[in-house]
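Reviewers asked in the last cycle whether our approach scales beyond single polypeptides. To address this, we selected a multi-component target totalling 511 residues and predicted its structure end to end. The input consisted of the following lines:
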Amino acid sequence: MQVRTFQASKAGAARHENEDSVDLRRRSPGELGIVLADGASTGVFSKGWSAHLAATFGEHLDCALESFDAVLELARATFSPDLSRHTALRKFLTEGSFATLLAARVELVQDAGRGGERSYALTMAAVGDACLIALDADGSCVLAFPCVSAADFGNTPNLIRSSAKLQERTPYRRQNARSPVRGTCTLLAATDAFAELVVRKVACRQSGELLRRLLECEEEARFAALVAELRRDHGMKNDDVSIVLIQDGGDA
Amino acid sequence: MYEAEISRSNPALILFLFDCSYSMSERYGSTGLTKGQYLTRLCNESIDQVILSCEKGDEIRAYFHIGVLGYGDSATALVPIQSVVDLAYHPLRFTRSEIDGIEVKVPMWLEDPTAKVNTDMAAGFRLAKKALTQWIIQHGGSFPPVLIHVSDGVWTTENPTGIAKEILSGVCTADGSAIVLNIHISGKDEETLAFPARLTAGTEHQLALFAMSSVLPDPFFRRATEIYPFVEVGARGYMFNAQPKDLSKFFDIGTRLRG
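The resulting structure, written as structure tokens, was:
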């Protein structure tokens, strides 16, 4: 599998303020673990919480896809931000930190019964609006999870809180899915701003050009320029962006 | 107008102006506190809430500057204008409280400033105008500053209307004129007049405070209608005979500028 990861910060924010976290683990030549977490900036320690969630779910991915709550409990129990600032302590105790999460296992398999055709076996879990999208070469959408239309993205996504007690006030909805996808597809995991744009472009059959431009990105600077253009000319929300691009490189 | 994004490069200013005259030491409704004590507590809570709203990610971001002015026999800065970051790290003192069994430090910036004899409201507005004007020199592109004035009585010296109108018409950023909100508090069980669009009758003092108040710009108008559904288009940032619960709501409308 060929894997590329790009990140861009919200316009006006410094790079270190990017509250998205990506955890990628190559588990074997044909198997990849992906976790994207998007810290909500209204909360305290958003970056730390998203990084901790991504790392914990990345480390325990198989368990998380079977028993999400157990891994979340572990993440909450081991999250220890610096609470020395009195404002941070009070905000953490009264509101906590929160983030969206997408966890996925991507396995590239060879189907002996179909002339050796290769396909991806996807196993996914999500809370919120970070998405995994599979696109054909012409940009048409083969799979989108968990959001399938622009209406599924909003200003109040489901969020995972750092405290189980605080979570009781705002329960989240978790979605799980398994799906095979043709190996000729490009897989795109993305946080909400970019994912929303892709879904919107798919709906108006303009995603082919976007996919082409995306695949031309070889380095961070080119991706940053593309993001700036998408914000300026295509109505993409000004938010932190993280994406993971996966293509079958024929290596497994 | 009134659409400038509040950011670290373009922070907003919230300036409180408090009546510190002797009458503020009278009991305020059923709060068990004097007006001055209640106002002090609410002001400290409001500053704290604004700071907490700026606690983002792993830091406090300087989205706001806050100051508190007071007047009695003369006018003075009770809390000099400073950024929320400086306020967060340098309170006057801390009190202790508990959240979920964990002891936390709750900051205070203001002590009850009342007990002055006179009510030199004009001196208060004059000092406010000077402070706002100086702040705007550095922040001409920011969201217009908000002045929240709280009084329980009638001025005993010069009529402040002219100075307040100078602020309303002459103190502005590129995004609009300064927003002046006036609240008259009363410990008596009298009918409260909240955010009127018109005022054709009333005492000289009542009419003057109305004239000294801004027509609520859209962001404030929307929040006011969430709390007071009867508020009409053209409503002014003005409240008369406000009870303790109204004062709290008024501060919420005047200070919740982000989100």
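The CA atoms of residues 156 and 179 of chain B lie 25 Å apart. We regard this as preliminary and will revisit it once experimental data from Aim 1 are available.
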